Amino acid sequence: MPGQTQRFSFNVLTLNTHKGFTAFNRRFILPQLREAVRAVSADIVCLQEVMGAHEVHPQRIANWPEAPHYEFLADTLWRDFAYGRNAVYPEGHHGNAVLSRYPIEYDENRDISVGNSEKRGVLYCRIMPPQLSRPIHVMCVHLGLRETHRQKQLNMLADWVNSLPVGEPVIVAGDFNDWRQHANRPLKARADLEEIFTRAHGRPARTFPVRLPLLRLDRIYVKNANASAPTALPLHIWRHLSDHAPLSAEIHL
């Protein structure tokens, strides 16, 4: 009907994969992690600490996949994927990744490292579901460990969000390392981003360490979108697959 509002919903999952190893790097569990991620059946998956390449591990670990980890995780379930290399070292590199059931029209990885600290980045994807006439802007985030660095990175993130087309939906998800819970206020004030667990429950979800989550490090923010069913996924399934608990939610446009 003319003038009818276009309605569309999709599921988002965010998870720090810890490079495919259990806590303290005791065991390689990427194949099990892939099955757990597939079972969620999310439409868009934001991953942090994804191994892009490593020269030594394939020689020592029997079930190390031939493909980069983001391709291995995407498999046949997510038709499109993007990877943003953040940390580079002599043996290889790791970074953020986005897996999508919908076409990724454009992707860009932006270095938001501060000074000589550990490399951090934001992986941006412009995703175009066939059902929509406008794109979804997705940012997969991994912020620094120092408060002063995070504040600068939040400013960079807010500026980028504000540069996007007015009125189009934005999803920002990932590991914010914001254990002091200082991110919500500036992101709301500067970029009108709302954290969906805070909107639903008053505070971000506890996600770290996964065996007994105390710190609220991982987040899903939205702009020009609504959310329902924000969930920290069951720990009895995930506690041996990463050091962070994964978060999921239904996003409604």
From TrEMBL:
GO molecular function, one term: endonuclease activity
Domain Endonuclease/exonuclease/phosphatase: 33-244
UniProt cross-references to InterPro entries, sorted A to Z: Endo/exonu/phosph_ase_sf (IPR036691), Endo/exonuclease/phosphatase (IPR005135), GPI-anchor_lipid_remodeler (IPR051916)
Record's keyword terms, sorted: Endonuclease, Hydrolase, Nuclease
SUPFAM superfamilies: DNase I-like
PANTHER family: CALCOFLUOR WHITE HYPERSENSITIVE PROTEIN PRECURSOR (PTHR14859), PGAP2-INTERACTING PROTEIN (PTHR14859:SF1)
Protein name from the UniProt record: Endonuclease/exonuclease/phosphatase family protein
Species for this entry: Citrobacter enshiensis
